[in-house]
Amino acid sequence: MGQPFSRRQLLQRASLLGACLALPARSLWAADTPRPIPWRNWSGVQSCLPLERLAPKNLDELVQIIRKASGKIRPVGSGHSFSALVPTDDTLLSLSNFSGLLAHDAQTLQAEFGGGTPMSSMGAPLKEVGQALVNMADTDYQTLAGAIATSTHGTGIGFGSYSSQVSGLQLVSATGEVLDCSRENNPELFAAARVSLGALGVVTKVRMQNRAAFRLRERQWLGKTEELLEDVENLKRDNQHWEMLVITHSDYALSVALNETEDPSTPPVPPDEEGGNGFIDIIEGLDKHLSDSPDLRRSLLNNMRHLASFDDRVDASYEIFANVRNVRFNEMEYSVPAEHGPACLREILKRIDDGNLRTWMPVEYRYVKADDIPLSMFEGRDSCALSIHQHHAMDHREFFAAIEPIFWKYEGRPHWGKLHSLGARQLAALYPRWKEFTELRQALDPHGRFVNAHLASLFGLNIG
Fold it and tell me: Secretion signal: which residues (predicted)?
């Protein structure tokens, strides 16, 4: 049976064409390119015209590029960050040739990948060697180095971000020095480099602490948002991975629970159901045409729940975690202390309803375990991550500006890969180990070779 309101349709995967726009072929990155080639991210909100776009073939070539480059150097992955981490007028550096499974250990269940490996290319080779990532985000287009640079995460009170799963990494510094880092080797740098925003150097290899391969069962149901919030302690305790997608301007949310199972895999979802946009179009249309009749819009959205039906899905973990994205959007996400999650969500929804704010995309609500990484959004505290979205063709600025102060009220920390307006002064107050990171960054890259305008604003630097 179809799944009209499934997670696969409420927040859908980017089209392959959109992803390819951010991943140019090797020939387009050659050092002798006669003229600059524009770059833009997946949603189109960030762009730049770099002087060079380079994709070194190996470590030696990468080292030489870093040593010889004049001006700023910014590593680029799949272009799935919404914030301005990548844009530069100087050198964009792709690690597309640093990809794939490099080594694995059956005893420790660790595996090493090239930093430029797309997360979508990790599940199958890990399964072949009997391993799986402990947890995954609900998109898998990011590159591994990019995902850990921004503390990208999934959901589940027992699970941290990708960065917390890192057991070792290799980094090339601003001077071209190759540094191998772990808790035993360069421990201070290892701690910081697990969430670095690409400001410490170029991460070429990452070793992940995994677990034995496993299957997941996905169960979905529509429930009243307030009732789900009242039951949130049970939901997050009784499910390994739980989240909800709140349908804005309605009283309902899609609740999604993922739990490990030994049951056999279910048949795959047909492509036409997986990528269909029919009900997405209806929700969008209601927002567009009934914004002047909010009561009628709410009534119609609430009654659409009767059209929804959901079948459980069982498959390899990486097949269940990841979702389709063929509706482009821009996103803001903050993580607040876990205990403040329900109150923060209630206030966001009230602001949307009271202001009749134009949006039709859901509010995503997830939980993440605390870690010990200086620039992780989850450093020192269990957190609730709340994400708001706006269709790429709609102006997100007014909507995000209306919601963002609510996150500040609850001591929210912005996702490094998502849009936000905070600068150095506000960020330093949110991160107890801010000074530790910034002093290390200054020691490693005193001339700011890896610092673009966005990073300069984050760290309070004058880059000239």
Answer: 1-30
User: Is residue 123 within 8 Å of residue 133, measured between CB atoms?
Assistant: yes
Print the domain residue range for 236.
Answer: 216-421
In-domain check, residue 319: yes
**Domain contains 185:** no
Helix (H, G, I), strand (E, B), or coil: what is residue 193? helix
Q: Does any domain span residue 349?
A: yes
Q: Is the dihedral of CA 388, 20, 393, 322 positive or negative?
A: negative
CATH code (residue 400): 3.40.462.10
Instruction: Output phi, psi for 362, to 5 deg.
Output: -75, 160
How many domains are contained in the chain?
1
Tens digit of pLDDT at every position of the chain (464 positions): 444 445 554 444 333 334 334 444 344 444 454 578 899 999 999 999 999 999 999 999 999 999 999 999 999 999 999 999 999 999 999 999 999 999 999 999 999 999 999 999 999 999 999 999 999 999 999 999 999 999 999 999 999 999 999 999 999 999 999 999 999 999 999 999 999 999 999 999 999 999 999 999 999 999 999 999 999 999 999 999 999 999 999 999 999 999 999 999 999 876 555 444 556 677 778 777 787 788 898 899 898 888 888 999 999 999 999 988 788 999 999 999 999 999 999 999 999 999 999 999 999 999 999 999 999 999 999 999 999 999 999 999 999 999 999 999 999 999 999 999 999 999 999 999 999 999 999 999 999 999 999 999 999 998 76
For residue 273, being part of any structural domain is answered with yes
